[in-house]
Amino acid sequence: MIFETVNPYTDQVIAKYPTLSEMALSDKLEKSKSSFKIWKEIPYGKKASLFHKVGNLLRENKEIYAQKITEEMGKVIKEARGEVEKCAWVCDYYAENAESFLQDEIIKSGARKSFVCYEPIGAILAVMPWNFPYWQVFRFTAPYLMAGNTALLKHAPNVSGCALDIESIFKEAGFPDGVFQSLIINVNLVEKVIKSEIVQGITLTGSEKAGASVAAIAGKNIKKTVLELGGSDPFIVLEDADLERAAAVAVQSRMLNAGQSCIAAKRFLVVQSVKEAFAEKVHQQIAALKMGDPLSEETTTGPMARTDLAEQLNNQVKATIKAGAGLVTGGKQEKAHFEPALLIDVKPGMPGFDEETFGPAACIVPVKDEREAITYANNTIYGLGASVWTKDLEKGVRIGRKINAGGVFINSMVKSDPRLPFGGIKKSGYGRELSHHGIKEFTNVKTIYVD
Question: Interior CA angle at 161 toward 155 and 163, to 5°?
Fold first, then answer.
């Protein structure tokens, strides 16, 4: 079988990649097993040095990698550069902190001495999406490899070039052969990889459907999973919010990466008294966006990654309007291009409220007050991120504690940061990435008891 990567802006085929045979896949699994025996014994200092090299390579070749991201999935070039830079940051962060995060933890008990140590468990399979083709990979490789595990990447087919480039970066940095490998395989072979006795854990970022499928197979084989799935993040705007700043961040959060982000603000829950003023400011911000060639420095929003994704969003927007919402601007679709849209008077029961809208469509939901905002925020099957806008910081924190989400940001855009744990609850998944929490997800938390 052949994977084709297609430029979503031009609709032209970029490259073709042959998929691995079952025999070639088995060889890669064996290589991961043998490299683990070597890699787990390498001191933290040596591992850190290699990751600093990876970070340097990312910065030195930023333009090359950013262009590949843009060509394969349509991200505007400025955002693609930022993604590569963030990957370098996470490499340096874990190079500098992994050893302290994983040091033995002394615990007083009835023993002469008792402590917990954190040991690597083996090969970790990562099933990753196309929307942040570099960042999604490096935010798992940096912690899990620094912990002593090896990595197998099953990337989305439309970013196969990015997957192979990342593998080349690890090789160029001097990592032992087999510590990181990209698997260009069809989806029907993912089950074989999960079932392999070599694979000890699975991390997936993607859709609810994909997460449920992978978790079911892993569960039958008694293997741990970390899932980061969809989101329908609420963005609460209260009466005392700084509307100018809130509107600017609202549009940035919703339209970043052409709206294709799990943690993008998707439901704007705005108190009725400021709804019109907020909507007008958001409208102005959206009108200022410049659609066009994502490789152009002037473009601020590019195409969606694939035509089918744009069609799905188009159907959701049309159904939301049919159900009674108003369309202020945008909403036109042609192939992978979707004009940034603003919908108002969206309510529970409409697709724009109930479903994850994975693209550049902002939905403003009027609420009576703070209490209804909290109720609406939690009226979702998801629980990834949330944002609260108010000048009263104590009130913001109080509301944040009442929202069911993995992270709540007060007067700020929801974002992932290597220093902070990242993940969700409910249908948004389980487990945590990043921070000291993330690096321990795929370690053996071993108790040592000495009497």
Answer: 35
